[in-house]
Amino acid sequence: DARLKGTVYRIRGSVPTSNYLQLPRTGTQSLGLTGRYLYLLFRPMSRKHFVVHLDVATEENQVVRISFSTLFKEFKSTATWLQFPFLCGAAEGSALDGAARRGEECACRRYSHLKSVKLCSNLLVKNLCTSDLVFDPGVTFSEARQADLACCGVAPMPREMAFPVPKGEKWHDLYDYIRFPSEGCKLPYDSIQKSCLGPAAVSEDPIRQLPQPVTLTKAVRDRLSLIHQITSPKAVSTLWRR
């Protein structure tokens, strides 16, 4: 891709189960990635659905599949599979009941490592990685050093994961940064979608961009605790637009 100045993998086909890129290639191998956060740089193809499967191993050596897709209409779960809808538009809230009850089967299991990733049509993928750091794509390396964000576990996006930003433009005007779970005002934990607050612009003090504590009801706190257990490490996706 000339604009991104790097290799982009195009995965397309009418049947997602038959058109995919799997890492590693065989089920007997394992990525063995232990980072708390997963970063995926991708762009859905226009007017087409896509599916992403993340197979994570628990400390009990059981594999749980976490999937997100534009094909899913609602959150569903079994003892070994969690399915999250992916909504490309801005968040408009989500159902705050039912998902916690349906996810109780997986709540008692603790994450060990990421075993494999399966990227199914239709999407373009630039890169993916795991890390214990929170990467903020809107912060430059010089801004991060100035604000000493490393002490807070926050870092600018690594160069091999970064998207180009022309001089005079802002990262968040060109790309979408979607975090899950979100810090959005309606906490859409049963779906993956852009925060209703929208991306924050980088100010003179980047450390002020960090999530601020909020007061939650007991029901939301219980739900958040459950979803964090189920989905740790958190899947963090970054989209680029045309």
Automatic annotation (TrEMBL):
Species this chain originates from: Ibidorhyncha struthersii
Occurrences of domain CFA20 (ranges): 1-135
Domain of life the protein comes from: Eukaryota
Stored Pfam families: CFA20_dom
Protein name: WDR90 protein
PANTHER family reported in the protein's UniProt record: ORF PROTEIN
